[in-house]
Amino acid sequence: MERIYLDHAATSPVHPAAAAAMAAVLTETYGNPSSIHSFGRDSRRIVDEARTVIAKTMNAGFNDVIFTGSGTEADNMAIFGTARSRKSGHIITSAIEHHAVLHACKALEKEGFDVTYLPVNKEGIVSVSDVQEALRDDTILVTIMYGNNETGAIQPIKEIGQLLAGHPALFHVDAVQAYGILPIDVAELQVDLLAVSGHKINGPKGIGALYIKTGTLLQPLLHGGEQERKRRAGTENTAAIAGMAEAAKIAENTREKRAVLYAEMKQTFIEVLTKNGASFSANGKVEQALPHVLNLFFPGTDVEAFLVNLDMAGIAASSGSACTAGSIEPSHVLTAMFGTDSEKLRSSIRFSFGLNNTKEQIEQAALKTAEIAKRLS
Description:
GO terms for molecular function: cysteine desulfurase activity; iron-sulfur cluster binding; metal ion binding. The chain is built from twelve helices and 14 strands. The protein is an alpha/beta fold and 377 residues long.
C-alpha cells in the first residue's frame, strides 16, 4: 500500500538539495561562526550567505534578518520583545492565530498587558475595520498572521499595514504558513516584524527567522553571547541555517509554479469527492485560501475516527487542531469561525499538499477519503 502524505501544513519533507547543503556543513564546516580563525570564518560566510538569501526572499535588509530556533521562537521574540521593551500597553491580535502567538499574548495578559482578540467572519478572515476600531493610543503591537495554518485563510495584511502606517504600534505578522507560498515584500506590506520557519518550506526543523525592521526596539528573549547582532544569544545552527536558505531559494524560484500546481491538486481533490458522492463542504472560501491548504467538513463523521481510517488507508492528514493526551481538542480556529456549537468542530479534516505529491496520489487519496466519509456518516 502506497503511503500518501497530505499534511505538509504540519511539516514538510526536506528537499534533497537542502539536505545536501546541511550534510556538507555538518561534515566539512564545523567551526563556530563567532571564532576569528579560518574555520570560524568559513562558518560565518555560510551564515552570512544564508542571511542574504532569506532577506532577498522578503525584500528585507541583510541586518534585518535574525535566525531563531523555530517559527515559534520568532513569534515569541517579536511579541515578548515588543511588550517588555515598552513595559505596558495594549496588544491587538485575532482569535485564529497560531498558539505561538495566542499563548504568548495570554502570558502577557498575566503580566498586566491588555489584549484584544479580534473575531473573524465565517470565511476565517479578520476585518480591517475591526482592527481600526480596536486601535487605541496605548496600542503597542498588532499581531495578525498572513495565512491560517488550519484553513489557509489569507488575511488582509497589506491593508492592515496601510492602516497602521500612521500609528506608533508595531505590526507583527506570523508568516510561517504563507512563506514560500505567497509573495512577501516587507516594505510593501509595511510590517515591522515577520516570522518564518524552515520546516514548512522543505527545510529542516529547528530553524526559523525573524525580520526586524531597522530601528525597531526589542528586548531579547535569550541572554548570553553577542550572536545575531546581540539580539539572539547562542551559537548559530550553521547546518540548519544553510538548509533553510537552500530550501528558501528553491521555494522562491518555484513559488508561482507550485501555487498553480497546488491549486490544481485542491480542485482535483474536490472534484473526485463530488464525483464519488461524498457529502462535504469547504471551511472558508477555497479561492481565498493558501493554495496548498484544504479544510473540509464531512457531516455526520467524527474527526478522530476519520483520521484513524485515513491512516489505515495510508493517507496522512490532520484535524488541524491540537492533540493532547490522545484526544483531539476542538479547533479554536473553527470555533472562532462557526461558534462553539457547530458540528464542524468535530467533523473537519485538513488536507495539505506539497513536495513529492502527484496528481495520481491526490486522485487516489480523494477516492479513499470519499469511501471513508460515506462509510462513517
